[in-house]
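Re: weekly structure request thread

Next one in the queue (262 aa):
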Amino acid sequence: MTFSLATWNINSVRLRAPIVCKLLSEEAPDVLCLQECKSPIDKIPVEDFAALGYTHMVARGQKGYNGVAILSRLPIEDVGDKDFAGLGHARHVAARLENGVTIHNFYVPAGGDVPDREVNEKFGQKLDYLTEMRDWFRDEAPARSILVGDLNIAPREDDVWNHKQLLKIVSHTPIEVDHFHQVMEAGKWQDVTRADIPEGLLYSWWSYRAKDWDAADKGRRLDHVWATSDIASAGHSSRVLRPARGWEKPSDHAPVFASFDL
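Done, posted below.
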């Protein structure tokens, strides 16, 4: 079984339903994982997606903030969620395909602006969230699993436009990158995107603050596709759909794709 998957922080699924439909129509991934849906589940425009063949959805929502959803053309089973760090936020949901592969969809807290938990509660929450992810994967080792989402960390030097300038900027600080790697190691996760695209600058997010995001190109790779070591070699065809960042009323993130032969 070969299936394609995409992950995309959509920054409001209702506001941006037209470009979700554009992606589904033009790119047709079998599974689309969305983050920052900012919608209760009953307000997600499921009819629009079902009309394009995406008749299955597993989601967790809340009004105005956070929210994660997995849309699929393939049958999926809801296999739960975790409230890491006790935040009460809709930031994780998991679904299982008929071939037994579990897909985890995550929206890790951004962490605010100051990388110091003593003065910035949000940064502490981010680190605690990652620590609890690590502990969960240590306690319950994942197998035949894919993890995707906006993890809000750009771990490598070539995942940001300027490594030295961003070392003290939230999303690229050494302590965040260390927590990121601890999560990966705990679950024996492998970075599918960088296995496919091992070298070179690669971004999935560009700030709204830039007047011309494309020309400035001050991006970061915040969105990730991982797989457990037992199936990671089945991943291929990774790419970032950069043009989506320039679509009408865009998200500040671009979708990240991968395919799997399982």
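The chain is about 25% helix and 25% strand. The helical segments are 17-26, 46-50, 121-139, 163-166, 174-187, 192-196, 213-216.
Next request, please.
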